[in-house]
Specification:
alpha+beta, four-stranded mixed sheet
């Protein structure tokens, strides 16, 4: 993957390489192809971590999407035992009444913490913050120090408010919309380029987005940068945007 996306956005590339190598059980074996990302498909992660009869602290309800990948990466980093329930979003399983009791918004991911009275949490960033607060070792991904914690939260909310929504809309209007609306395609693609420029600037002279160390901010942004092509974002276009051409 690192070889495939090599370009002038070297800081983003470097971030991708580091985070790809970080999770212990989630590695990439096909750098020359965009799909499939084997560890995150049903034949990969979901086959490896199928729900077992042994009750583990966390049940994860998710699917192979950028938001759905954030939580298993964090669970692996913190070595928290968990079971996976694959939600078939193409069949609208996430809208079924039983799941709406876990997440009223009807989207993945969500978790249930059986070690805390079957406490449920939804929204990917909220889940990551909960896990880092609840389980041992969480401070390595979300610091306790106020200034360091604030830096991590800044880049976490940046992903939730900018990278995810803008790139998601770029992908929708470019690939899924029933009609091509050039204004919408250009508007969201240009904004996605701008967001990537912000990320690249933030990584100038740094290895990670916040405090010079790996955190939930990197995990949250990584899963969306990973699928930049779905949002019709290419590194050729990013280079052009960077230079103002």
């Amino acid at each position: 993957y690192q070889r495939r996306v090599r370009g002038s956005f070297s800081k983003i590339n470097s971030m991708l390489k580091r985070i790809i190598l970080a999770p212990r059980s989630l590695s990439f074996n096909s750098p020359q192809t965009h799909k499939p990302y084997k560890p995150f498909t049903r034949n990969g992660l979901y086959k490896q971590y199928q729900t077992s009869p042994d009750k583990k602290p966390i049940t994860l309800y998710t699917a192979p999407t950028p938001n759905g990948w954030k939580v298993p990466i964090t669970l692996e980093e913190l070595e928290i035992p968990y079971n996976v329930h694959h939600i078939h979003i193409q069949k609208n399983e996430q809208k079924e009444p039983w799941f709406l009791k876990i997440n009223p918004n009807g989207k993945i991911p969500a978790i249930v913490d059986h070690s805390n009275g079957d406490f449920s949490v939804f929204e990917s960033a909220a889940i990551l913050f909960y896990l880092t607060e609840k389980f041992p070792g969480g401070e390595k991904l979300l610091p306790k120090d106020l200034k360091e914690r604030t830096r991590v939260l800044e880049w976490s909310f940046f992903q939730m408010s900018s990278l995810g929504p803008m790139q998601g809309q770029a992908g929708h209007f470019n690939r899924a919309a029933p009609e091509k609306i050039e204004y919408a395609i250009k508007r969201y693609r240009d904004e996605t380029y701008r967001v990537y420029s912000v990320l690249d600037l933030a990584l100038e002279g740094k290895e990670y987005l916040a405090n010079d160390r790996y955190s939930v901010a990197d995990i949250l942004n990584f899963t969306w940068v990973l699928v930049h092509e779905f949002g019709a974002v290419s590194y050729t276009h990013l280079r052009a945007h960077e230079t103002g051409r």
